[in-house]
Design brief:
single chain; about 260 residues; alpha/beta; eight-stranded parallel beta sheet; globular; binds zinc ion
Length: about 260
């Protein structure tokens, strides 16, 4: 069994000091590849260092919408540089977060559009972070045009109707352990409408451990196995068949060897 954690933050302080242990437990659980996602200039550089150090690890780089207010032309120039590293497989996470509102909407929209420009120029897929900003996120993606090749909505928190809109555009949808939470009926309804070959999985660790491990405060890639089994059940699939399809999708989407 080989699963890919397509969105984790292994450089964050909760995980980085024990990275060898984190990866050993992950391998033992069958989660054998990782895309570690940068969120600011410092984390982006660290993500690339990690990806250089571990063979099965890749990086995604971006400035998180939370930090949009800090982004200057220099920030974007450095981002574009970093994104050309051979182990960078995506631009992300980028998008809009109107839930926390840590940056003005105007800044978030501008920075999101700039990220899409870089993705188009470099031919990289895009990892979207979208909270309470669905219509505007779709609008900005629309404006970016057909040059944006591959798009995944990470940690999907929308409705089944919104999932259908995303799928109609040819985009992909990724689920975290949230789908296993007791109160996540809406997310399960969304997962139900996503064809298994348009679906990916992630931990978004160190956040959001899946049930029945939700009490484990620091989530890690090994725990993605619970989300995988849960989603296989939801899709009424043999779990190894399910894992095979999702891994193949992730590999193609991110262009992994
Ligand atoms: Zn996110
Ligand atoms: Zn994330």
């Amino acid at each position: 069994m080989e699963l890919i954690d397509t969105h984790c933050h292994l450089t964050f302080e909760d995980l980085a000091p024990d990275i060898e242990g984190v990866l050993a437990r992950s391998m033992a659980a069958g989660v054998t590849e990782w895309i570690t996602v940068g969120t600011d200039p410092h984390e982006n550089r660290k993500a690339i260092q990690f990806a250089e150090r571990f063979e099965n690890m890749y990086a995604a780089v971006a400035i998180h919408p939370h930090d949009a207010k800090t982004v200057t032309a220099d920030t974007l120039a450095e981002l574009k540089n970093l994104a050309q590293h051979e182990k960078v497989v995506a631009i992300g996470e980028t998008g809009l977060d109107y839930h926390y509102d840590f940056s003005l909407h105007e800044d978030q929209r501008r920075v999101f559009a700039e990220h899409l420009k870089i993705a188009v120029e470099l031919g990289l897929p895009v990892i979207i972070h979208c909270r309470k900003a669905f219509d505007e996120t779709m609008e900005i993606l629309e404006q970016a045009g057909s040059g944006v090749k591959r798009v995944v909505f990470h940690c999907f928190s929308g409705s089944a109707e919104q999932a259908k809109i995303v799928l109609d555009k040819g985009f992909y949808i990724s689920f975290t352990g949230v789908v296993t939470f007791k109160n996540a009926e809406k997310t399960r309804r969304a997962a139900a409408v996503v064809p298994v070959d348009r679906l990916m999985m992630e931990t978004d660790c160190p956040y959001m451990s899946p049930e029945p491990m939700r009490k484990q405060k620091v989530n890690e890639p090994a725990l993605m196995i619970h989300t995988a089994r849960f989603l296989a059940d939801l899709k009424q699939m043999d779990w190894e068949d399910f894992a095979r399809v999702v891994t193949a999708t992730s590999r193609t989407f991110f262009g992994l060897m």
